[in-house]
Amino acid sequence: MQSLFKRSLLVLSAGLIGACVVPAFAQTTGASIYKNGGKPTVLLHTDKSWNGTLYPAYPSGQPQLTVLELTTAPHAKTPWHTHPAPCAAYIATGKLTVETKDGLRKTVSQGEVLPELVGPIHRGIAGDTPTKLLLFCAGVSGSPFALNAK
After folding, report:
1. Distance (Å, whole) CA 124 – CA 121
2. Class of domain 43-148
3. What keywords are annotated for this sequence in UniProt (predicted)?
4. Is the dihedral of CA 114, 117, 118, 121 positive or negative?
5. Contact, 141 vs 62, CB < 8 A?
6. What backbone torsions phi and psi does residue 109 show, to the nearest 5 degrees?
7. 139, exposed or middle or buried, with CB in 10 Å at 0-12, 13-18, 19+?
8. Are 25 and 31 in contact (CB under 8 A)?
9. How far apart are CA 54 and CA 51, in angstroms?
10. Which of 15, 80, 133, 140 is surrounded by the fewest CB atoms within 10 Å?
11. DSSP β-ladder status, 113-115 and 87-93
12. Domain residue extents for the chain
């Protein structure tokens, strides 16, 4: 698992560097590092979670990224939980419905990205087929990226 985490973090880091540094370099040199002049596709760029709430400030402390790959069985449900800092879930296969305790629901499908809630209690419910998602969480060292709710 740690090997997968290290590889995922390396891929995420390389992607972030490429998305931030390379376009600036290309603009100053006129060069293009993208095959056939293509450009990266932005999958998510937001300051709000899926329910439209603005994200709060990050917790103070040493930043820490967590990247998880999670595959669920059909109709599986995550425990009710909260996130103390922003996370985003990329749906690699299947569908995922997220819901809050007060009944707000949203369904995301393969290829879509879900900006997770920070604070409110929620859970995920897989669709009719196994659902594979990649979860990217930005938090603080020593603090969990998710907390089970009671």
Report:
1. 11
2. mainly beta
3. Signal
4. negative
5. yes
6. -120, 175
7. buried
8. yes
9. 9
10. 15
11. antiparallel
12. 1-41, 43-148
